[in-house]
Amino acid sequence: MAHYNIQKHPRADGTARYRCPVGVKSGGKYIYRENRTFGKQSHAKTGGAMRMAELEQNGFPSNDKNG
Description:
This is Integrase. The protein has one helix at residues 41-58, and strands at residues 2-4, 7-10, 16-26, 29-38. It is an alpha+beta fold.
């Protein structure tokens, strides 16, 4: 099952950026993880929810080199 959360990170100029890691765990270990950064918290929330739904529907990319 995929999940996401939002982390606020201040930049050097004082503005905030929002990192949205999306991950998939199996057996208590990450089997897939990715991050995106957004300028607005609402964009991060929407982007995280959309990507999580996409991963649950289509599965996640494989790193297999055999095919």
